[in-house]
């Protein structure tokens, strides 16, 4: 029974990977990595790269042409939601727990006059205007650990070896080898050499 499940899963993964490759400019997955390709919503001209021996389960939504998601080696990404209009870079040996949301954009303008027609245009006309939406890449350094239920917002860089406590909202850069938590996330302590 287990072998049948594995055969079906691998066949479906292969089919979805082929479909994904047709829409993306680049689709590269390293040896030994497993990706839930059916959870990826591509946009033409996008880039998707995963290193070796990584496990990727999150839903990934490409918001516009040319958006890029790059994930390193030996990285685990649990079920969550990543929305990318520009770029998301995740390093090597990173752990991202379940229910994590990462967005490299505000999605809508803060000014009502600029977002007043967003629902009508997006839902009914299939048009999204990005000229009044703030967008900035998100970067997660090697060896970082993002706890469950966290939200990482546009322009954030998470330093190497940093730990983000569960349900935190990260609005600013996280220093390397530090622990942050809260809403908004604040420095709890630095991680000493003996704990790295």
From TrEMBL:
InterPro entries: Hexapep (IPR001451), Hexapeptide_acetyltransf (IPR051159), Trimer_LpxA-like_sf (IPR011004). The keyword RNA-binding does not apply. Gene3D superfamilies: Hexapeptide repeat proteins (2.160.10.10). GO terms for molecular function: transferase activity. Keywords: Transferase. This is Acetyltransferase. It comes from Ferriphaselus amnicola.
